[in-house]
Amino acid sequence: MNRSDLRANPRQAFGAFLNIPYDPRFENLYLAYISGVRACGLVPRSALEIPSAGSMHDRIVRIFSLLERCPYSLHDLSRVQLDRVAPRTPRFNMPFELGMAAASAEMAKTGNHVRI
Length: 116
Prior knowledge:
Low-confidence stretches: 1-6
CATH class: Alpha Beta
Mean pLDDT: 81
């Protein structure tokens, strides 16, 4: 990323996509991630910004677009669990979003997207 990119849109240039658990049980962890990202001078971004209305395809496209605008992303995969509803299958949205971040970085061919 060059200086003109940073001057043109500083919020975008310093975005960090957070792929982390958002339920109440992980609230302290969620706040720690946000605080850490802000302390590093980055703007936390997440799929929570995207309205849940619309098709699954639209939501995936919006998440991918958000990932493309963030030069960094943090992925906490410690919370992959079973759905509460039958059939009890694992929810893989968080590993899926990590895959989307990897694809975004590969497609950009810039090497600027850091996956943690």
